[in-house]
Write a structure and sequence with these properties.
It contains 2 helices and 7 strands. Strands 4-1-3-2-6-7-5 form a 7-stranded antiparallel β-sheet, with helices on one face. It is of the alpha+beta class. The longest helix has 16 residues.
Length: 148
C-alpha cells in the first residue's frame, strides 16, 4: 500500500494531484526504478476536521510481488490500511466530483437511518475509484462509511 497526503483541498483536486504522484511512482520514479502494474481501487480516506477543512490520504494497493519489499519514493510512502471490521458501501457510476460524492454520502447515511448501524458510523470515511481518469463515462465508484 502506498499513499500520498494532502491537507485543505477539495477531493477532486486532491485525486488529480495524488494520482499524478502515484502514476509517476508506478511508472518507475522510485528507488528501485521498477514499473508497477496499476491496481484498483484507489482509495481515499477523508478525515474531517471542520465543515470546510478536511485531510485526505490516498491509497494505492501494491501488487503482491512488491509487498514484502516495496519501492520507496519521496512522494509515496508504504502504509497499512486501518483495520475496520465493518463498512456501509454505496456503489455508483459516472465521473466522480465533489457534488456527487456529497450526494452519495448523504444517500448512504439516509439509507442507514433507524438501523442498528446508524450510531456506529465513525468520522473517517472513504471513496474508492475503480477506473482510470480517461474512462469518465464508465467509472465505477464507491462511498464508504466506516463503522465501529
Amino acid at each position: 500500500m502506498k499513499r500520498t497526503f494532502l491537507i485543505n483541498v477539495n477531493l477532486c483536486f486532491l485525486l488529480c494531484v495524488s494520482l499524478y504522484s502515484l502514476y509517476a511512482f508506478i511508472q518507475g520514479k522510485n528507488d528501485q526504478a521498477v514499473k508497477i502494474n496499476m491496481t484498483a481501487p484507489v482509495l481515499t480516506n477523508i478525515y474531517p476536521s471542520t465543515r470546510h477543512n478536511s485531510s485526505f490520504v490516498v491509497y494505492f494497493y501494491l501488487p503482491q510481488k512488491h509487498q514484502d519489499n516495496p519501492p520507496q519514493s519521496n512522494q509515496a510512502h508504504p502504509v497499512k490500511l486501518p483495520k475496520y471490521q465493518y463498512a456501509a458501501v454505496k456503489r455508483y457510476g459516472g465521473f466522480m466530483n465533489d457534488t456527487n460524492i456529497a450526494e452519495q454520502f448523504s444517500a448512504l447515511r439516509k439509507s442507514m437511518k433507524g438501523s442498528v448501524w446508524e450510531l456506529t458510523i465513525i468520522k473517517e470515511h472513504s471513496v474508492a475509484v475503480y477506473n482510470s481518469p480517461d474512462e469518465r463515462d464508465t467509472c465505477v465508484n464507491e462511498v464508504i462509511l466506516w463503522l465501529d
